[in-house]
Design brief:
Blueprint: E1 12-19, H1 30-46, E2 49-57, E3 60-67, H2 70-91, E4 106-110, H3 113-124, H4 126-129, E5 149-151, E6 154-156, H5 170-175, H6 180-192, H7 199-209, H8 212-215
């Protein structure tokens, strides 16, 4: 497993996600992707938020971040989304105004190093699972890639990543399929906002913050039939 600075893990870690309204494309050109990567980079210079990983997909995006103060989570994400909406409409006037996101962003707490590691694998492997590339590192719009990105002829700086040693085999790890259990857990997290962590940690967190609906099984409770 790659080495991650344990001292930083005392802070709050989140997997953040937002989707296009009615699953419309948020990124249609290379310039669209580059513009958003630039927003990630500039946002982290204004607030003390560390980016651990990210991946932009045609109709949604994922970012894994560490916040030093919980209030900065919403400020950081809202700042990016608001600037993105304005720039999206400026670059796509033929589409008219209106919402481009389906609603408020989603954010999922992450407990510790092992769960952070799995979330990063899940996020950076998104284009591979979607069959957009044959190797995850070939997708230029994620933290796994080191390709230069351009908005027109202007090179755009990527966001600085938190200092952790990905190790020489990280690319191989990301390109390996996640276990069924890990993938199911990630998909439930994305669909319902379920935190990523040990069951007791999740139980304590959900009780403290009123998140029980995110971990409760869907559908009506099963009826108990007494045996006579």
């Amino acid at each position: 497993m790659p080495r991650i600075n344990r001292g930083a893990l005392e802070q709050g870690f989140f997997h953040v996600l937002n989707r296009g309204n009615h699953r419309q494309q948020l990124f249609q050109t290379n310039d669209d992707y580059a513009l958003f990567i630039g927003l990630l980079a500039s946002a982290s210079e204004r607030l003390p938020v560390k980016v651990w990983g990210y991946c932009l997909m045609p109709n949604h995006w994922h970012v894994v971040i560490e916040v030093l103060r919980m209030a900065d989570l919403s400020k950081w994400v809202h700042g990016i989304c608001n600037r993105h909406v304005r720039q999206f409409h400026r670059h796509n006037p033929r589409l008219g105004g209106g919402h481009i996101y389906q609603g408020r962003y989603k954010s999922f707490p992450i407990q510790d190093e092992s769960y952070l590691y799995n979330v990063l694998c899940y996020v950076e492997a998104n284009p591979l699972r979607a069959k957009l590339v044959s190797r995850a590192q070939d997708w230029p719009w994620s933290s796994l890639s080191r390709a230069k990105v351009y908005d027109g002829l202007v090179e755009v700086a990527r966001p600085k990543l938190a200092p952790w040693d990905r190790g020489e085999h990280w690319h191989e790890t990301v390109n390996q399929p996640l276990s069924h259990a890990s993938l199911d857990s990630m998909r439930q997290s994305v669909a319902r906002g379920t935190p990523q962590g040990q069951p007791q940690w999740i139980a304590d967190l959900t009780t403290k913050h009123g998140l029980e609906p995110t971990v409760r099984a869907r559908g009506r409770p099963r009826k108990l039939v007494s045996k006579e």
